[in-house]
């Protein structure tokens, strides 16, 4: 049998880089440091997952850190209000690359039962890049563990040649939204002002 048929295709292209990817991703996926960021009832299930019964330490995630500078996984668990969004984005920007976001529960994913609420955001993915969604209201600890394992699979399949945090054109952070009459992005202030002026009803009598 030819040697080419015995070696996987990805190893035939570059044995060194493939080995680096495997070791690099193996160490990263087994040493994720999640941030303790509970917003509502989903946080109770997240804390339960970190307790002794489910033994989160076997996945290399023994301690949940309170500081974003010590974390690389943000678990958004619970209802995201418009007042909380600027803080969430600011904390995400303070996390070092590589960083990941896990949306836990129906509220964090799409607003849940509070979707039509005047102060609730219909999904954190409107402001942050979400890597894994964990459905449920609230999700069980087993569901959260499954979501973490799916994140492990995503990390294992990444390559140092294509990951965004090693590129020169990678944005350094996400614009922090501002809370006025409603939540909005400062980058779109001119666009929002233009749309508002078009929708403004004309006065019946013009002032002289």
Which features does this protein show?
208 residues, alpha/beta, Rossmann fold, four-stranded parallel beta sheet, two-stranded antiparallel sheet, 8 helices, 6 strands, 9% strand
Walk me through the structure.
The chain has helices at 3-6, 9-13, 15-29, 42-49, 85-94, 106-110, 141-156, 189-199; strands at residues 34-35, 73-77, 100-104, 132-134, 178-179, 183-184. With 208 residues, the protein is an alpha/beta fold. It has a single domain (3-175), classed as Rossmann fold (3-Layer(aba) Sandwich), CATH 3.40.50. The strands form two sheets. It has a four-stranded parallel sheet with strand order 1-2-3-4. A two-stranded antiparallel sheet has the order 5-6. Helix 3 runs antiparallel to helix 7 and helix 4 crosses helix 7. It is globular and about 65 Å long.
How many helical elements? 8
Query: How is the main sheet built?
Result: 4 strands, parallel
* Helix-strand string: HHHEHEHEHEHEEH
What is the domain tally? Answer: 1
Work out the strand percent. 5-15%
Stated plainly, the CATH topology is called: Rossmann fold
Structural class by SSE content? alpha/beta
Number of strands: 6
CATH-derived architecture: 3-Layer(aba) Sandwich
CATH class group = Alpha Beta
Query: Please, what is the average pLDDT?
Result: 82
N-end to C-end Cα span: 94 Å
Our Rg estimate from Cα atoms comes to 22 Å
Molecular shape = globular
């Amino acid at each position: 049998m030819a040697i080419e048929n015995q070696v996987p295709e990805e190893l035939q292209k570059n044995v060194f880089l493939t080995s680096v990817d495997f070791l690099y991703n193996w160490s990263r996926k087994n040493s994720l440091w999640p941030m303790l960021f509970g917003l509502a009832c989903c946080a109770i299930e997240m804390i339960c997952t970190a307790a002794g019964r489910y033994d989160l330490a076997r996945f290399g995630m023994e301690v949940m850190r309170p500081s974003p500078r010590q974390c690389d996984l943000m678990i958004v668990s619970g209802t995201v209000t418009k007042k909380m969004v600027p803080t969430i984005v600011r904390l995400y920007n303070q996390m070092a690359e590589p960083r990941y976001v896990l949306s836990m529960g129906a509220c964090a994913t799409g607003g849940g039962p509070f979707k039509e609420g005047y102060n609730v955001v219909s999904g954190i993915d409107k402001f942050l890049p979400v890597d894994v969604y964990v459905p449920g209201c609230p999700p069980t600890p087993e569901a959260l563990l499954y979501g973490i394992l799916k994140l492990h699979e995503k990390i294992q399949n990444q390559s140092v040649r294509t990951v965004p945090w090693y590129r020169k054109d990678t944005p350094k952070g996400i614009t922090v939204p501002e809370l006025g009459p409603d939540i909005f992005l400062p980058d779109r202030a001119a666009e929002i002002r233009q749309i508002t002026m078009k929708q403004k009803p004309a006065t019946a009598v013009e002032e002289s």
